[in-house]
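LOG
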Amino acid sequence: MLSRAVCGTSRQLAPALGYLGSRQKHSLPDLPYDYGALEPHINAQIMQLHHSKHHAAYVNNLNVTEEKYQEALAKGELLEAIKRDFGSFDKFKEKLTAASVGVQGSGWGWLGFNKERGHLQIAACPNQDPLQGTTGLIPLLGIDVWEHAYYLQYKNVRPDYLKAIWNVINWENVTERYMACKK
């Protein structure tokens, strides 16, 4: 359902659920040869310094830059829309959490885009009822509140799961979906 074209475009966006924003950090790759393998042309000390210090610094800086980029995406137009439509990010978070906790049995809590009004809205759908098909809202962020999504770790304490889920949301993907819907 979530991988279908969004907002009438053929562009495929990564599912907001499943990916959960858990980007793997880049790591310094091992060299396929020993530091001393290029001697006498380049000595082992130069290779070790370049690889373990300079190359490692580039990799670390790439990770820092990507983290800052993701934070910036969540703070751009999407954050402004959240503030406009819910008052603040904290109020939005409270409302979506409350809607998700309130789902009886299994279902989903949603942040959707109302194309007619040009506003964000929160909705909840029972079972596997699709957001767009039942409310007309375009899905931006879905929180799975079926027990299989959290029961092994959180047992029947859905509020604890919903508190934790905010730490793994892929805001880059939510922002991409929002920007696509505004077109």
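LOG (cont.) second protein
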Amino acid sequence: MTKRSVPRYPEDDGGAGCCGVFCWCCCILLLIVAAIAGAVAYAFFVYKPKAPSYSVSNMSVSQFDFSSSDLTLYTKLVATVRAENPNEMIGINYGDGSRTVVSYRGTPLCSGHLPTFYQSFKNVTVMEISMEGRHGFGSGLQSALEESEKEGNVPLDVFVSVPVSLRFGSLDIREVKVNVHCALVVDSISPKKKPTIKSATYQANIQF
């Protein structure tokens, strides 16, 4: 009897093909990541970005009326805010949706908002921010405020939240929100006397 040989078929190399495609995809992804990292590093090297600074330089109170009938306080004041852009090649766009709040011991007194504007390179902009509000103000807070007035040390918290975008030349990058907290101590918050800022500390963070 003649011995019949078993036919052989070529092995399926589909697995190797998939591995090759996967390796190419990984290489392309790495190249894209490297290109982005290089662009960011180049931008930092060329533009040398610096953080802007903010300060409250002045404050005036036009109304500060307490109603004993419903324990509410109506406040109207103007805060002078100084914004400095120290960058030589980066502009700052201040967008819509900003908010400013002044509070005493965690209780809001008044609120307002920043104007929308573009701040150019190496620029200092001084803004007068009008704020007003009517809020509940218990007798305990009123007594504490009167005591602070007598001592000449009234602690106030100023909170600023504003959406901004940076302009590198003609390119605007994505908008982020800048939050600034200013802890002030003034000698008075009475409309009869112009407040003097005795001390101020600032904290800021960026919300992506």
